[in-house]
Amino acid sequence: MTAGIRGRAGFTMLELVISVGLLSLLIGGVFLMAKNTIGLGHAVVEKQSSVSEQTAFLDLLGDQFASLPGNARLELVAEDSGAQYLSDLTIQNVPMTFNWGGMERVAKAVQLSTVRRRDGFLDIVLRYYEEEVLEETSEVGDEVANRFGNVEPFAEVVLMEDVYIFEWRVLDGRTMEWSYDWDLVGRLPLQMELLFAKDMVEAETPIRHVFWITPKQNPEVMMRQLQQQGGQGAGAGGGDGDDDDADGDGGGGGQGGRPGGGGGGRPPGINIPGGGGASGGRAPGGRGGG
């Protein structure tokens, strides 16, 4: 009796092995589900951060292009490196004041450059210059000599990292043609198009964003026009005064180089009808004085 009870108490080795196996499968499934959930959460957070970064970057560029003054200088230089285009976008005559290193600095020129890394990805770098780096010429349409030379930026900021495609194109408002370079003095492009992709997967369907550049009056040209108009107005005012003097009465013996007689500036030899002292002069349909 006692031996029978002892034989039925506990589990066999096979039952224990099966139980441990089922428990391991259950725990593994729970951990795998938790891992996938955590990974999905991280992917969503990274995607949101990437989209927010891209949105902030595009908003920054849009604000900069929308606020360009009429006398702003813009130069775009592109280089085909094989798999990617490397570009330098330089904007001048757009003073920016900000604090850098605890000191207030003023940048007369900024440059947005793509720097290629060894792994093939790009860094988008914004450089600030205290001096003008583009030479100004007087003729519209002349090419601009880039004189960076020994001019070094006093500040550099990496705006974006790990970018696979970052390409610019500009639209000429006169010819309505797209190009990868811009070096014309005196006018800005009508549109700027940015082709953007973070990785090789996004490179198949890259982001394409177009920035409008509003045409604005160059303040320097406007001031010259106002000065010219003011000078022409002053010259016209002086000429009117001379004409008034010339149209004055010519009586008193031919003053001012004009023949005398006949007041009111009338030429000599013309009789006034009805005048008592005018011999032989008759008014139309009337009689002369006796």
Low-confidence stretches: 138-146, 241-290
Order of helices and strands: HHEEEEEEEEHEHH
Strand content: 25-35%
Contiguous helical run count: 5
Name its key features:
single chain; 290 residues; alpha+beta; five-stranded antiparallel β-sheet; four-stranded antiparallel β-sheet; 5 helices; elongated; disordered C terminus
List the SSEs and their pairings.
Elements lengths: L1 H7 L4 H54 L6 E8 L4 E16 L2 E14 L5 E8 L25 E9 L1 E7 L6 E2 L11 E7 L2 H4 L3 E6 L6 H28 L4 H4 L36
Antiparallel strand pairs: 1-2, 2-3, 3-4, 4-5, 6-7, 6-8, 8-9
What report would you give on this structure?
This protein has 290 residues and is an alpha+beta fold. It is elongated, with a radius of gyration of 43 Å. Strand 1 (73-80) and strand 2 form a beta hairpin. The model is unreliable at 138-146 and 241-290 (pLDDT under 50). The termini are far apart. It has a domain at 67-221. It has helices at residues 2-8, 13-66, 200-203, 219-246, 251-254; strands at 73-80, 85-100, 103-116, 122-129, 155-163, 165-171, 178-179, 191-197, 207-212.
